[in-house]
Amino acid sequence: MKLYVIMATAFWLLNACTDTKKQEKDALEQVIKIHDEAMAKSEQAIKDKILLDSLAKANSSLQKTDINMVISNLSNADKAMEDWMHQFNADNTGKSHEQIMQYLNDQQKKVTNVNNRLKTAINQSEQFISTHKQ
Asked: What is the pTM of this model?
């Protein structure tokens, strides 16, 4: 009977350990998934800035303050992506499961915010480009 209790406890502990590692892995994968989406948007933001610069040079009748605001919004959103990437640290050595999960949840919120900023800036720039393209 003692052996059964020891084996059951060992199995439960091993299984619990595996579940926490899976939770951590899943949380990290979610952060990376949002990061990848934001990276694609970051690339689009750079392309849009180039188009806007060309559009401004080719069309002197455009309101410089309007186009500069759109370019600034793209630049700020792209910088937010760079800043997030520089501060993100996937190394969780020595941290408890709770600390890891809290960190990854916080990072998911931050990168989601960056992703949304990029999406908004790109939508604004694409609308501006389509309206003013000759």
From this structure: 0.82
